Amino acid sequence: MLSAVIESHIKTSDAISSEDIRPHFDCSSATVRNTMSELEELGYLTHIHTSGGRVPTDKGYRYYVDMLLTQIQLVEEEKRRLTQHYQRQIRVLEDILEKTSEVLSSFTHCTGIVSFLNKGNKIYYNGASFMTEHPEFRNIEKIRNVLKVLEEKKQLLDILNRNLEKRLNVYIGREIECEEISGCSLIVSTYDVEDKPLGRIAVLGPRSMNYSQVIPTIEYVSGLISKALENL
To answer: Model confidence over 99-136: pLDDT tens digits?
Structure first.
């Protein structure tokens, strides 16, 4: 039932009531209400008093993403579309990095970020304007905070370069450990050549991002950029 609440919230950006998800289950409205109340007591959901509905907490998203990681994969059509962007021969390193940030942002409708460890820890990013499309960022102060972190690159690099030994990291809300973007989620993957890590690619977006699409996209793109760099 938690998955149903989260997926409905991702789709609509609204607080979710028991009536919104009851059609997905063969049980009474009272059973759905009681289960949602239990999930709230356990810290997976929180109540939005003005609407009467509930939204996921960081803990709820974490449970959902951990479960999702064992199940998701990119459909072949998406793989084909992503691969097309790298079939044209690009012989300049900076062009590949810039192209990758553009591809990530256009496919996820979030901010695409690419860092390169051997170029003075340079960062490329695209798609910051996509953040304004998400209801979670209607508050102008939240947008300012995101832009501040993107432009003051040292703090962002410190976050991206955590856990370099892991190929994929998913940070949700306060797990990012950066107050300015604590309302976001950050998906980070490593790209490499001959098993040597060269940098990180990342997607920064709302906590209600479409994880089932964003995570396999960033994993697939990390392979594409690695292959493109091998051919330089």
So the answer is: 999 999 999 999 999 999 876 678 999 999 888 888 88
HSE-up (13 A, CA, CB side) for residue 228: 26
Domain spanning 76-230, CATH class: alpha beta
Report CA 106 to chain centroid distance, whole Å: 13
Question: 45 near 56, Cβ under 8 Å?
Answer: yes
Average pLDDT, the chain: 90
Domain ranges across the chain: 2-56, 76-230
CA 119 to chain centre: 25
- In this predicted structure, the answer to whether residue 71 has a pLDDT above a threshold of 70 is yes
pLDDT score for 92: 86
Cα separation, 155 vs 145, whole angstroms: 12
Q: Provide the CATH number for the domain formed by 2-56 in this structure.
A: 1.10.10.10
pLDDT for residue 49 is more than 70: no
Whole-angstrom CA distances from 14 to 110, 115, 135, 182, 195 are: 19, 34, 9, 19, 43
User: What's 73's DSSP letter?
Assistant: -
**DSSP symbol at 16:** B
Which range is least confidently modeled, 2-11, 33-42, 135-144, 165-174? 135-144
**Radius of gyration of the chain, Cα coordinates, nearest whole angstrom:** 19
Q: Do domains 2-56 and 76-230 have the same CATH topology?
A: no
The token duo for 209 is 């991002």
Amino acid at 146: V
